[in-house]
Amino acid sequence: MNLDVKCNVKNCKYWADGDQCVADSIYVIGPHGSRQADSVEETACRTFELRE
Ligand code: SF4
Asked: Measured between alpha carbons, how far is 18 from 10 in angstroms, rounded to an integer?
């Protein structure tokens, strides 16, 4: 992706060396469909796919 996205989730199929996300885009969601988060821990990458 054009934006430099760092990620440390090594078992995602879009993860690459140097903690780079190589997905074309990512979609980040809040908890339970609320569209709001009160902390970092409540945000999640919806683009995550388990590396086989
Ligand atoms: S898609 Fe999400 S979880 Fe996967 S490497 Fe990119 S930012 Fe991390």
From this structure: 10
Quote the Cα angle for 33-36-42, to 5°.
Answer: 80
Amino acid at 51: R
Check pocket membership of 9 for ligand 1, CB cut-off 6 A. Answer: yes
**Closest Cα to atom 3, ligand 1: which residue?**
48
Phi, psi of 9 (to 5 degrees): -85, 90
For the purposes of burial, counting CB atoms within 10 Å of the CB of 21, is it exposed (0-12), middle (13-18) or buried (19 or more)?
buried
pLDDT tens, position by position, 1-52: 568 999 999 999 999 999 999 999 999 999 998 999 999 999 999 999 999 9
